[in-house]
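Table S7 (text form). Paired inputs.
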Amino acid sequence: MATAQVDIKKLLEAGAHFGHQSSRWHPRMAPYIHSKREGNHIIDLTKTVEALDRALDFLTQTAAGGKQVLLVSTKRQAKDKIKDVAKATNMPYVTERWLGGMLTNTATIGGRIKHLKDLESRMISGELANRYSKLEVQRFQEEIDEMNHLYGGIKELAAKPGAVFVVDVINDGIAVREARKLGVPVVAIVDTNGDPSQINYPIPANDDATKAISLILDYVQTAIESGQKKAAKPADKTEAKKTADSSSKTVEKTETKAATKEGK
């Protein structure tokens, strides 16, 4: 059962059922298509709800296991929302150009991120200001800003995330291919022109409508946050057990002392 109750009415209101022109469809999307209207395919939202439930359960389990979910969308309609969800859940994200090797070439990408963190550290400590002229420091700051534009969202990305979430499998196909190459499960919104067989957890829906994307990402955020809460509980229980054990020992000591005094 999904952590967030998916509302089919809200999906309908957001236009999640509108697919692409029937001439641009992918045959493997046939099981998710309800009908054709004015030359456009209409997605079966009952299938969307089922698929979204499965995807959300998986994302909750991933977050509960303490693993990262890399959130990806470089398309205009989703960039801001992806960033908001990523920051709210403290997850890595990519909203600018996907650089080839972001997942598969960890040596090169890791080197660039290390360089960025080093520059930021030296800038904050004042080392750059002490060693270089104002103009040179300004150039360092420009380099930091430029690198943050590209790598800012993945500065804390683990070598292998627990999952990758993609809004548009065609627009960000490289991200899908790299994740598959590493064996990282992919959760993605797949429109009628996409291939769901390449995705572990495909969510059949309109990947162009801002409202539909935003609604699905709200569900994704709830699922991740639910998993993070579950991940925190075992530690809380352990701490509570320690406190209870400590209190119990204190009570035992007090009772022993009292019994000794009475015996005297």
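Next pair, protein 2 of 2.
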Amino acid sequence: MTGELAVSIVLTIVKAIAGETARTVSIADRMPPHLWFVGSAIFHYLGPSFAVLLFVRVPVGGVAWLRIVSAAIVFAVWRRPWRSFFAADRSTQRAMVALGSVFAIMNYSFYVAIDRLPLGTVAAIEFVGPILLALAGSRTRRNLVALALAVTGVYLLTDVRFAGDPGAFAWAFANAALFTLYIVLAHRIARADTTTSPIDRLGAAMIIAGIVITPLGFGDAIPALTDPTALLAGIGVGLASSVIPYVFDQMAMQRLSRATYALFVALLPATAVIIGVIVLAQIPRPVEVAAVGLVIAGVLTHQEPTQNNQPTTRTPGTPDRA
């Protein structure tokens, strides 16, 4: 009963925030894509508050399994995304399978890395890939200045310490590479020209992720299956870290170029500072205030290329363009 009640609560919250398909499309059309990203960034840092309850009860592999599988169950009950998978063309199906595999291994790598390294170090390493994507898409002097401002702000915000377990750094760089792949593949999924919703395609990828993560983390997650607190925390992590933010990402990616989204990733550490002020009354140091200002200045300076504002369209059977 505890699990059923938790899933019911999760579904109610998700529906209230994202809405059904028609309503979501209407909201997405009216809302600036930048606000969808800000919403994603906020939930990106609410997820760890649930994970804290899990780390004292469940090994890191089990936390990754609970996060992915609980999100997959939410999508399965809410969207029945397998219909989207079978309705898609082969190219889009391959992208969904690839994205699901990236979800699973990326989250596993992230939890192993932060278990052994400071979170700020892992976050800084994770930002390397998006910097390269943003740089590849920065074809104007103005956008290069925007990127420089954002990178400087992220550097000042993250507590980077290049000392520790070499194996942990390997996991951190693996997570960074996979996060870059996430941006590329999720952007492709968001703009795939099919008759289905991008949220359904996302849900299909998450179910695939649940299958891929099971050999890696199920054994570690077994103790949580009989622990109501750990189980509810796992569902909370899945909702706050793998359902709501990824749905918001899809809404943003439909109208943002890949390079612009990659630059916006710089907002994540800045958002953490702002949430700390609002929720925890943590007064930032002057250098942190300056760093947040640099990140915001970078985002405001960046100019979205006009030709990338609209979703890419293609005929069935032709390759996706990232």
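Residues 308-322 have pLDDT under 50 and may be disordered.
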